[in-house]
Specification:
By secondary structure, the chain is mainly alpha-helical. About 60% of the residues lie in helices and about 0% in strands. It is built from 17 helices and two strands. It is globular and about 55 Å long.
């Protein structure tokens, strides 16, 4: 099982990852929610943050590069009440101030969206907007300082794309941030997914603009690179934006998704890093929406029941939708 869950690309059996831990008890349908990226080191990091132990958190983060790893930063920024104490090390630990600022800034973005909720803009109250912007302003200040302290980091610029979108800072600012991120890693998946969101019509993009961007980005990626996920996400977003639930159910889209999966997550050169299950979930949902029946089996076989909330949260019952797709695959 470990070889399938934490091994190399394409679903082949490989030596077990020594840092992987067994999945928790599965649901009756054979699925389970991925916790701590399925990695013991990440679990130690989360436990240290949960106990508000900054020295232990620094020690747990040592094997990783938080300034470049979006999955790890996401695990921390999703932790409730983190904002209540992470400001202290940002103020007191000069040596690791940039790390604390990065974590705090990312958390304030998530915390801000919690206040705004996922409601349509017209349904968000004036008070919700006030709190939302207040928290995003703190995030902006902290992330810009983190970027200044650690100019080689890409993570602050990724996060600033999200806060800038929430604050409607306009194309000049967001494009400058996107370019800053690309200068640090021109193939970074998280950066491209953030920009894909920026290009959606609901955020001011034009019809077809996001898909054209995804195709251009994927064309530059080497075999086995996870950047192929931008194709999957582009079609998920097209489905979200459309009033037609069958909008991506065409032979051409199915073929494009199969090709993208084969050249990225299912390619023998693909390397599974902590959080790889999110990338497989992206393709899983896109292939399901497109009505694909062959490659989708390979994707769900590799997942072996591992569910990540994103991107399935676009459904009102995400876990049930994943379980249904898992069963049918």
């Amino acid at each position: 099982m470990f070889g399938r869950l934490f091994g190399g690309g394409g679903g082949e059996r490989t030596p077990a990852d020594p840092h992987a831990f067994p999945p928790p008890q599965r649901e009756r349908n054979g699925t389970y929610r991925l916790h701590a990226l399925g990695d013991r080191r990440v679990l130690r990091m989360i436990e240290a943050a949960g106990s508000r132990n900054w020295p232990a958190l620094k020690e747990a983060m040592a094997p990783f590069d938080l300034g470049h790893d979006n999955h790890l930063l996401g695990e921390l920024s999703d932790l409730p009440r983190l904002e209540e104490w992470i400001g202290r090390p940002a103020a007191e630990d000069k040596e690791h101030r940039a790390t604390a600022l990065l974590i705090s800034g990312a958390r304030h973005i998530v915390w801000g969206w919690e206040a705004r909720t996922s409601a349509r803009a017209v349904d968000v109250t004036r008070e919700q907007w006030r709190v939302f912007h207040e928290r995003l302003e703190i995030a902006e200040e902290q992330l810009l300082e983190a970027a200044e302290l650690e100019p080689g980091w890409i993570a602050p610029w990724r996060q600033l794309l999200t806060s800038g979108r929430g604050m409607s800072l306009g194309p000049a600012v967001t494009e400058a941030r996107f370019e800053a991120a690309l200068r640090r890693d021109d193939l970074d998946l998280a950066t491209h997914l953030a920009w894909l969101s920026q290009l959606q019509p609901r955020w001011g993009g034009g019809p077809g603009e996001a898909l054209a961007f995804a195709r251009q980005a994927f064309s530059r990626a080497p075999e086995g690179h996870p950047l192929g996920c931008v194709i999957a996400m582009a079609y998920i977003e097209e489905w979200v934006e459309s009033d037609d639930p069958e909008v991506v159910e065409t032979p051409e889209i199915r073929a494009e998704l199969r090709n993208a999966a084969d050249r990225s997550i299912l390619h023998p050169s693909y390397v599974r890093q902590p959080g790889w299950q999110y990338e497989f979930n992206l393709f899983g949902m896109a292939l399901v929406l497109a009505g694909e029946t062959h490659t989708v089996r390979r994707v769900f076989q590799a997942l072996d029941g591992a569910y990540t909330e994103q991107p399935w949260s676009y459904f009102s019952d995400p876990e049930k939708q994943f379980a249904r797709a898992h069963r049918r695959a």
